[in-house]
Amino acid sequence: MFSHKNKIKESIADRFFLTGVYLFLTILLVVVLYPLIYIVSASISSPEAVSSGKVWLFPVDLSFKGYEVIFSNSQIITGYLNSLFYTSFGTLISVTLTVLIAYPLSRKTFFGRNFLMFFIVFTMLFYGGLIPTYLVVQSLGMVDTRWALMIPNAIAVWQVIIARTFFQTSIPDELVEASEMDGCSDFRFLWSVVLPLAKPIIAVLVLMYAVGQWNAYFDALIYLKNPDLHPLQLVLRNIIILNTGTGGMDASEMMERQQLADLMKYALIVAASLPVMLIYPFVQRHFVKGMMIGSVKG
Amino acid sequence: MNGIQVKSKILGNAKKSLKRHWQLYLLVIPPVLYFLIFKYIPMFNSVIAFKDYSVVKGIWGSEWVGFKHFEMFFNNPQFWILIKNTFFLSLYALAVGFPIPIILALCLNEIRNGMFKKTVQLVTYAPYFISTVIIVSMLTLMFSPRLGIVNQLFGTLGLESIDFLGLPGMFRDIYVWSDVWQHAGYSAIIYLAALSGVDPSQYEAAKVDGATRLQKIFYIDIPSIMPVATIILILSVGNIMALGFEKVFLLQNPLNLSTSEVISTYVYKIGLLNANFSFATAVGLFNSIINLVLLVAVNATSKKISKNGLW
């Protein structure tokens, strides 16, 4: 609007300052982007090029050996499939439960909504603790079952707040009253009026829960002993972090194997982040929206 | 109206609401059960901190031992190390992680050029979507003493290679700065939202008065994001002892343990790996209580100073 005017009137001090801002942001851009590009480049370079330091930005001696190794590893395939399962069903459970509590909380006619809100928010302030929670999950017989990853952390309080704020601000009271006059029940109103109007917030909830579920690792670490149930993140941790080479290998064959193992780790990082990163440019908008809705004080 | 009348009126309203909107109450049953079972029962289960928990006798059947486990923890030589590590790491993370997103948002707000602004946002926001396991994996690969890119660069410069992740002195820097790398872009969004709500006429008035860009930031931008910043600061101080377990745990190795062992990782090891349930619960409870006290104290202070608080 007044940007062209700015250009004419910009004082020297302002120009100096603006240059500084651009410089700072450019440095930041490079710092954030560089590791991402490096990892991708390393994953598609030859093992020798990576280990001799020839790769520093772009791929050298294009090779997909790392990917061949990971996609012939049954442990990794199982992890991938498990993560897909946990992400789809876990997200379904989480979104359903969140809407079930967020919608009634947004209704003024719901008696005790303030108490209920406090009941929920309090769990953000005071946490029962790792062991007491473990004992509950254990007594329900969920340890070493798939349920352990989808139920005990199904609802995030923050998402309830975001969803409730959305319902409060975008479903006018008049709409509720009018449909009540017409004899519409609360169930029916939720199903055929609220949900269609709530598509944007449901998209936000699905995305946030799905990313959380895809990236989750801690619950699997404490609740799952059976490796057949492990999600991808736990497999990753076992392969990449626990397997770090301790050095002291001098035989040339060992060296080669070590190089390939390292290459595989780069490929694994890319393969595990790919699903989220591919959808990211399309969903970024929704996330920003979700953050903004949440920041409106309700 | 006297008290009894008020009470009966409230009850009457409740009855009317329940009769008319029973379906809404039915909807909340599953989520309420969820909170009761997975959040509130664990709070009550914390009583095992005051008992000698035995699997056979169960939570309520086990014997009371009072503050025995707490005393054991306070007298443990590890106690001060754990407190110190947890506290310093959180404080460092707060001191760096709180202002940087604000600076980023203020800078982005200065730029009107669409493409560059969008690119910076798209890129700085992206690492938020990478899992903790992958962040730590990237760190271990890039800082690896033998093949990591950082040490290879050191090699070409003729410097000795360093095992960054094994140095206790480097642990906090690695933890905090990689966290900033991952979260700064995401955290900036909330401030950008606040800045977008500033009335444009304020900027125009400032311009008429001949304010520089820097002055506009200090007299318009910063005051307008203060309320949001205060809330975020309170929340982070309240979480000072509840440090992200996952990342610390993943970055930990026997070499850096002297600075990387924090209360939450200690609870995990003592509790789940050594099956010392009561002791670990006592440690966890102590941690939660400190958190709650910090949160309440900071909230009260903030309300006094800036009239801004969580409740």
TrEMBL record, chain A:
Residues 80-287 form the ABC transmembrane type-1 domain. It comes from Metabacillus litoralis. It comes from the Bacteria. The chain crosses the membrane at residues 21-44, 84-103, 115-135, 147-167, 188-211, 263-283. InterPro entries: MetI-like (IPR000515), MetI-like_sf (IPR035906). It is found in: Cell membrane. It holds the Pfam family BPD_transp_1. SUPFAM superfamilies: MetI-like (SSF161098). Belongs to the binding-protein-dependent transport system permease family. The keyword Cell membrane applies. This is Sugar ABC transporter permease. One of its GO terms (biological process) is transmembrane transport. Keywords: Cell membrane, Membrane, Transmembrane, Transmembrane helix, Transport. One of its GO terms (cellular component) is plasma membrane. It is a multi-pass membrane protein.
UniProtKB/TrEMBL annotation, chain B:
CDD domains: TM_PBP2. Pfam families: BPD_transp_1. SUPFAM superfamilies: MetI-like. The keyword DNA-binding does not apply. It is a multi-pass membrane protein. One of its GO terms (biological process) is transmembrane transport. GO terms for cellular component: plasma membrane. It is found in: Cell membrane. The keyword Secreted does not apply. Keywords: Cell membrane, Membrane, Transmembrane, Transmembrane helix, Transport. InterPro entries: MetI-like, MetI-like_sf, UgpAE/MalFG_permease. The chain crosses the membrane at residues 21-41, 87-108, 120-143, 180-198, 218-245, 277-298. Residues 83-298 form the ABC transmembrane type-1 domain. Belongs to the binding-protein-dependent transport system permease family. This is Sugar ABC transporter permease. It comes from Metabacillus litoralis. The lineage of its organism: Bacteria, Bacillati, Bacillota, Bacilli, Bacillales.
